[in-house]
Design goal:
The chain is α+β, with helices and mostly antiparallel strands. The protein has three domains: 109 residues, no CATH class; 45 residues; 148 residues, no CATH class. The protein is built from seven helices and twelve strands. The chain has a seven-stranded mixed beta sheet, covered by helices on one side. Strands 4-3-5 form a three-stranded antiparallel beta sheet. A two-stranded antiparallel ribbon has the order 1-2.
Length: 347
């Protein structure tokens, strides 16, 4: 190993500056143009850089000296030694520059002797939280299911289609998840409907202010004398039924020659759960109608007072035959899913 290599290695192994106290002092002679230093670390770095430059100068001097020996020595052995001396000087410079280049490529901080020992942070302690309560019903429109998580009811992620929700719910069940409420739909909030005029609502449904027993969309009775209707009065109010609900009704399938008859609207005194501004209504059509057959072909989601419930288009259709024990005129009670806390509008 050449003397230049030894000098470089010695400089590279200088003590870390963290072992020395910082001090400000003036140099007796400038080094690379620097006359004042603030710490021993800066001084060692300056000496390190100066030594690299000095090594290059010494290498040139050695090449010149060994070149003279090569030309002036007549013996073969002398010439070999001179050549070896020249190559050692060249290899020394290459080793110094190559070492610096390698370290700088890997990480420039390796050339900085400002070493500080930093305390190793301990791993954060895992915080285990105990579930405190059931998830509330979701409010963002989409399909969900609910499942038991260590005694607490949780909501599934939101799914865009009923098929995706059903597929992933069944997969979760196959993996041991206890599903407490199968896939259900949370609709978008209903648009505010007309509430100032009964006539305007009926006109939106059938094109005129009466709609009395008309097809394909009609109402079974004239409006009530009061917003809530009077006990014993045969009437149906549509004022306040949301526009989105009117559009939904007009989009329902029905048999040719038949139609959809609204038998219950916003007359809250005659229908306990009905209210103005709520997407809740009753409808009736002939037995065996297209809509009747379509709904009964859907999976039965649950029952209410002995009446089966079905989900279609974000609305819960309850096939009302019994009013919690008492037989009534058969009709469909329809409400947008999640509209009320009423069991009839939930699954």
């Amino acid at each position: 190993m050449s003397i230049l290599s030894k000098i470089f290695i010695l400089l590279a192994l200088l003590f870390p500056s963290t072992l020395f106290a910082a001090a400000s002092y003036d140099l007796l002679a400038p080094i690379l143009g620097t006359t004042t230093l603030t710490s021993l670390k800066d001084y060692l770095l300056l000496v390190f850089r100066a030594a690299i430059g000095l090594a290059g100068v010494l290498a040139v001097v050695m090449i010149v000296v060994c070149g003279i020996k090569l030309m002036g020595n007549p013996s073969v052995s002398g010439k070999s030694e001179a050549k070896e001396c020249i190559w050692n000087a060249i290899f020394g410079v290459i080793l110094i520059l190559g070492s610096w280049l390698l370290l700088n490529t890997i990480n420039p901080l390796l050339l900085n002797n400002d070493i500080a020992l930093v305390g190793i942070a301990s791993a954060p302690t895992a915080v285990v939280t105990t579930p405190t309560g059931n998830d509330p019903m979701p409010t963002i429109s989409g399909y969900y299911y609910r499942f038991d998580s260590a005694g607490v009811i949780k909501n599934s992620p939101k799914y865009s289609t009923a098929a995706t929700c059903d597929q992933l719910m069944k997969k979760a069940q196959s993996e041991g998840v206890t599903v407490t409420q199968t896939c259900f739909y949370i609709p978008k909030p209903a648009e505010p409907g007309p509430s100032a005029s009964e006539t305007s609502t009926r006109t939106a449904l059938c094109g005129n202010g009466s709609c009395l027993n008309e097809k394909p969309f009609g109402v079974n009775n004239k409006p009530c004398r009061t917003p809530g209707g009077s006990s014993g009065e045969s009437c149906t109010n549509l004022a306040g039924l949301p526009l989105s609900t009117i559009s939904f009704i007009k989009g329902l399938p029905y048999s040719a020659g038949g139609g959809i008859m609204i038998t219950g609207g916003t007359e809250f005194n005659l229908h306990k759960s009905h209210r103005a501004g709520k997407p809740i209504f009753d409808l009736r059509f002939s037995k065996g109608d297209a809509l009747d057959n379509m709904l009964k072909a859907l999976p039965k989601k649950s029952s209410f007072c002995g009446n089966f419930k079905y989900l279609y288009g974000g609305y819960v259709f309850t096939d009302e035959i019994y009013a919690c024990g008492a037989r009534v005129t058969r009709h469909w009670h329809v409400c947008q899913l999640g509209t009320l806390s009423s069991t009839a509008c939930q699954f």
